[in-house]
Specification:
single chain; two-stranded parallel sheet; elongated; binds zinc ion
């Protein structure tokens, strides 16, 4: 009896999706970041030169994220049954080989354009209109092998936004930061430096607090753009050789005058704070002090209690 070998399951596709998504994200983010260097020259020719040279990499970053979206959909479908991914017309079946089992990969599988319809038909969670609209638009762009449609270029930031939108139904609401942190621990650079993961998370998140809208930050991270931001000491102590000013990545949760908990959106840590005025730096108006380290989270100066104060 012949069997079919190498039948994938949902987890195989999830792994692939995460890998492609993070590669696309990394590429888009470095294009965005390096773009600052070009923009800082304030020289029109340099800036134009940079963005036109970045076009092929933008198209590739978009293709990686789009591929990730397709793998996420395949994962969802395969979690019901991998055979739903196969086009069932007998003429599409692989040619038989004597005594040899066919491999799943020899079967023709669904076209990308059918993945959403099949997923919605077999899975109890229907994908949103936003997801479908974005997926179809980016798929068309990817197929055209370009980063622009009708002369309107896709920016690095749009690719980052797209990555956030398409991963949300699969990794969960506000789970991107956690997912990115986990992924970075499997990155080749993590093998040489643990600090690199903390540095990357802090750098990416701090940058996105400027570039994403208040609505996007709230939706994908839970971050409140209008609320005051503090420095995270966990991130700072791991990376201070590379970034001596620290990172503005933490906010009080709950946001109240007597709140004693601070949460960092980059490293994911919560820590206890005391609410006393910082007096070390004359111009600092901070009143959020790390309880463990006795450091002001606004200016990073050491905090010394006055005689009548204690740190509780
Ligand atoms: Zn942190
Ligand atoms: Zn201070």
């Amino acid at each position: 009896m012949k069997m079919i070998k190498d039948i994938p399951d949902g987890l195989d596709f999830i792994m692939l999706a995460n890998r492609y998504l993070n590669l696309g994200w990394r590429s888009a983010f470095s294009i965005l970041e390096d773009g600052d260097i070009a923009n800082e020259t304030e020289d029109a020719e340099t800036i134009m030169g940079y963005w036109s040279a970045a076009e092929p990499e933008l198209a590739t970053a978009l293709a990686l994220v789009q591929q990730a979206a397709e793998f996420y959909l395949k994962a969802r479908i395969a979690s019901v049954s991998p055979w739903l991914l196969v086009r069932t017309e007998p003429k599409d079946f692989p040619k038989p080989k004597l005594g040899e089992a066919a491999s799943f990969s020899e079967f023709r599988t669904l076209d990308a354009q059918d993945l959403i319809r099949v997923s919605n038909a077999v899975f109890d969670e229907i994908l949103s209109e936003e997801f479908t609209r974005e997926f179809d638009a980016k798929r068309a762009q990817r197929n055209a092998g370009t980063h622009s449609v009708g002369g309107k270029p896709t920016t690095a930031l749009e690719i980052i936004r797209y990555a956030l939108i398409i991963s949300e139904p699969f990794i969960g609401e506000r789970k991107w930061a956690q997912s990115r942190r986990d992924h970075l621990t499997r990155d080749r650079l993590y093998q040489t430096s643990f600090e690199w993961q903390v540095f990357t998370m802090a750098k990416e998140f701090e940058r996105l607090t400027r570039d994403l809208t208040a609505g996007e930050l709230k939706r994908f991270y839970g971050f409140e753009k209008k609320q005051r931001v503090y420095r995270c000491l966990n991130c700072h102590y791991e990376t201070r050789d590379a970034a001596e000013d620290g990172w503005l990545t933490a906010q009080l949760i709950p946001n109240a005058p007597d709140s004693t908990n601070i949460h960092c959106y980059a490293c994911g840590e919560d820590s206890e704070v005391i609410r006393k005025s910082c007096r070390q730096a004359p111009e600092c108006k901070g009143n959020v002090i790390s309880k463990e380290h006795q450091v002001c989270l606004t200016c990073l100066e050491d905090w010394v209690p006055e005689e009548d104060e204690n740190s509780s």
